[in-house]
Amino acid sequence: KAGVTQTPRYLIKTRGQQVTLSCSPISGHRSVSWYQQTPGQGLQFLFEYFSETQRNKGNFPGRFSGRQFSNSRSEMNVSTLELGDSALYLCASSSEDNSPLHFGNGTRLTVT
Amino acid sequence: QKEVEQNSGPLSVPEGAIASLNCTYSDRGSQSFFWYRQYSGKSPELIMSIYSNGDKEDGRFTAQLNKASQYVSLLIRDSQPSDSATYLCAVRGGGGNKLTFGTGTQLKVEL
User: Fold this and answer.
1) Backbone dihedral angles phi then psi of residue B81, each to the nearest 5 degrees
2) Mind listing the pLDDT tens digit for each residue in A5-23?
């Protein structure tokens, strides 16, 4: 079974721009979560989608948004990029509630 | 108080020894507990999951959960240099699949 696939792997953007990251979950997994990882803050929860509905949201500004499509693929968008948005963005999928999360390889975003 | 706390380390153990990694959490309603391993520059990889009090063993790994003390630990027996990584404790509380992570413990297994 293919794992969680995230694209692109690396991105370099300029302050003020926007960016869209993509995630394809493991086949059959309907829950997709997004996390931001930085050296100072560790892994911080962004949001979770289940069957195209946002089920949980972390404590991030409204510049961070996401969506999930009917095939469970998910995208997250960050608008008006700031230097502090530079991080590794991780997507994880799960087959059902209470099951472990399986992470993709991440997208490393650098904002200059 | 952080929701999930881990000693950042580094924890250094000699090859072949037992490594003991600890984690405490603040939400008494937490239901599921996970240990992830993360190598430098890589994404987290699931090592163990545990849902009820007691021990759960999988190969060289044993997870221990004590809900009354709000404490979860990971023991790695016969530690190998390839076990050198950061170990993340994660806790799931309310509805959905939101995990709260600790900041991780860096483990170094020395030859």
Assistant:
1) -55, -30
2) 999 999 999 999 999 999 9
